[in-house]
Amino acid sequence: MSPVTLLPFIVLIGAMFLMTRSAKKKQQQAAAMRNDLQPGSGVRTIGGMYATVKEVNDDTILLDAGPGVELVFAKNSIGAVLTDDEYNRIVHGVEHDLKSDTDIVPDDASSLTESADTDDEAAAASDEKVVDLGKKDGPDEVREKAAETEQADAGEQPKKTDGDSDAQK
Fold first, then answer.
1. Three-state SS at 6
2. Whole-prediction pTM value?
3. CA-to-CA distance for 63 and 80, rounded, in angstroms?
4. In this predicted structure, which of 16-30, 36-50, 115-129, 132-146 has the lowest mean pLDDT?
5. If we measure between CA atoms, which residue out of 107, 85, 105 comes closest to residue 95?
6. How far apart are CA 73 and CA 75, in angstroms?
7. What 8-state DSSP symbol labels residue 2?
8. I need a surface site. Which of 42, 108, 117, 169 has the fewest CB within 10 A?
9. Rg of the chain over CA atoms, in angstroms?
């Protein structure tokens, strides 16, 4: 047989070897992570439950999921070991401020505007007109617009037909 004929088979076998090798490597890393568990570590199970490791045995692990809630899981059910900052952020909602020296950007523009008194004073000082971007339509204005629309619609008379229409039934 010529080497050109065998080339596709060699490439296919090589690809299978590389895929199984990377899968084995991931399994070994996961096993090492589970074997290095220490009491007090925050973990996430493969089911998505967050808990603290209380006790580690050969094949099982005792998790503290809350006050008075202790659960026994298989070691293989641990999906990830979390850092203390990540565990506190997810479970307790505690944000660790890494950039305490910099200003925090607000989620909305409400903190960018100041109170009405401050705006009036600033406008008077700079001789600029204060622009209010709030909606001014009150209930009376809404009713007036609706009445105008109804009058415009009432001005158009519907056409009378002999009963034949293009609408499908």
1. helix
2. 0.46
3. 13
4. 115-129
5. 85
6. 6
7. -
8. 169
9. 35
For 48-68, the pLDDT digits (tens) are 999 999 999 988 999 998 888
Beta bridge partners of 70: 64
96 CB burial (10 A radius; 0-12, 13-18, 19+)? exposed
* Tokens (6 digits) for 143: 């009713």
Query: Which among 93, 54, 90 is positioned nearest to 73, based on CA atoms?
Result: 54
Q: What is the DSSP string of 93-157?
A: -PPP-S-TTSPPPPSSSTTTS--HHHHHHHHHHHT-PPPP-S----HHHHHHHHHHHHHHHHHSP
Cα–Cα distance measured from residue 79 to residue 34, given in angstroms and rounded to the nearest whole number: 9
Residues β-bridged to residue 166: none
